[in-house]
Amino acid sequence: MATPTTAINSRERLTVNEVCADLGVSRSTFYDWRAKGTGPRCIKLPNGEIRVRRIELERWLDSREEAA
Known about the structure:
This protein is of the alpha+beta class. It contains four helices and three strands; from the N terminus they run αβααββα.
């Protein structure tokens, strides 16, 4: 069973699939953004998997907000 710390950590660090689902984009789009340096800041784990801090995703989205 997950400890409270594990549950908090899993919500604070999103997988690529979670980010893509949240944004409604494909994995290939996410990786295109990453290759171009225009995507949200990521953490690359020692096993090669990518995580995105929820706060970084929110900052990235805020930086793209346009005035109506």
